[in-house]
Hints:
The protein is mainly alpha-helical. The protein has helices at residues 15-36, 41-69, 74-96, 104-138. It has one domain: Four Helix Bundle (Hemerythrin (Met), subunit A) (Up-down Bundle).
Amino acid sequence: MTFFSWSDAYSVGAQFIDNDHRRLVELINELHDAMALGKGRDILGKTLDDLIHYTKEHFKREEDEMRRIDYHAAAEHVTQHERLIHEVADLQAKFHAGESLVTGAVLKFLKDWLVNHMMRTDIKFAWALRRAGAASVAV
Ligand SMILES: [Fe+2]
């Protein structure tokens, strides 16, 4: 059974964000499967690196759009991104140093963080993007 299934309920209504989130869900599943199948540290490490790399790219895409529309709630949104990156970078460093493992608890944390962030934080940004789009059409 798939660990983390995409649901249309996760759609925030902005295409590029939804596309990125679908990819993040896939990458979290890849990490889960690598762990569940008992893959070696090299495979797990590479999968973890891919997930973190893509997450940083995704956050940058969102933050570029926040600047473009001068999003009023950018500061607190970016703080959430920075906190997550800080946490996963710590995990990544410890994993590569052989000091920590990718566990079920780590996977659950990533899944819950993403669902929560999509549904509470990204959805508000997507509303603002749509309003900004409508405003620029009206002008
Ligand atoms: Fe976000």
